[in-house]
Amino acid sequence: MAQKNTNDIIEVCGKIAKILLENGAETTRVESTVEYIGRAAGIQLKCHATMTAIFVNVKNAAGSLTHLEKPRVSSFNLQKVDEINTLSREFSSHKIEFDQLQSRVEAIDHQVIDFSWPQKILSAGLVSVAPMLLFKASWKDLLFAFFIGILGYLASQLAGRHSATPFLGAITGGLVISLIATSLKQAGIADSSSNIVISALMPLVPGVPLTNSLREIIERDIISGLVRGMDALMIAGSIGIGAIVGTFLANLLIGVL
């Protein structure tokens, strides 16, 4: 295979690995997908992925070539992971050519895949309501959890978008939720502030990083698993700090009034 074609293949594979890792795929999936695409392209690739660097290596008659990608994992989008997986299957089954793979990977990389704000708001409210069913809460508290969960989610998104400070969004969301729920309880409007807080915090909980962390550790990718786990714990701790501060402020304000 020509040197230029080999360079193109490992560059595309590196970009695929970066897209997968940045959008919520575990490192085992990243490595297997890249090596799978390499075999379909006719070369034997070796991929090593961590949370801070991705290496794609191939050895041929001209020597050894290594491509490096530096991922920046700050959020995730599982729809991009699904699209890349679908694309790799199409390429491996020879339904598309390499040029098509290359162009579609570029399109996915620059594509902004997101849900509309009404969908996000409704989803945040529904996620906040679900735990209340386990608590056998009153209909009044269930309704409060729905709207407070939405307000907490919006506060978290707003703070995260307008500040580069890590975890500020999680702190803000937890603070808003706890402040409103505790204030309603202190005013005698809500029945249980703790149930409302626990339920309304659900949209902020880092479920995907925590799940991926456990999967990484089970697959013996200890370093990546610990990194993901620490990130999830930092987010959870930030939510807890915000909730504690919100409860304190609510009790302070109600006491003054």
UniProtKB/TrEMBL annotation:
GO terms for biological process: succinate transport. Residues 12-249 form the Threonine/serine exporter-like N-terminal domain. It is a multi-pass membrane protein. The chain crosses the membrane at residues 142-160, 166-184, 196-212, 232-254. It is found in: Cell membrane. The keyword Flavoprotein does not apply. It holds the Pfam family ThrE. Belongs to the ThrE exporter (TC 2.A.79) family. This is Threonine/serine exporter-like N-terminal domain-containing protein. The lineage of its organism: Bacteria, Bacillati, Bacillota, Bacilli, Lactobacillales.
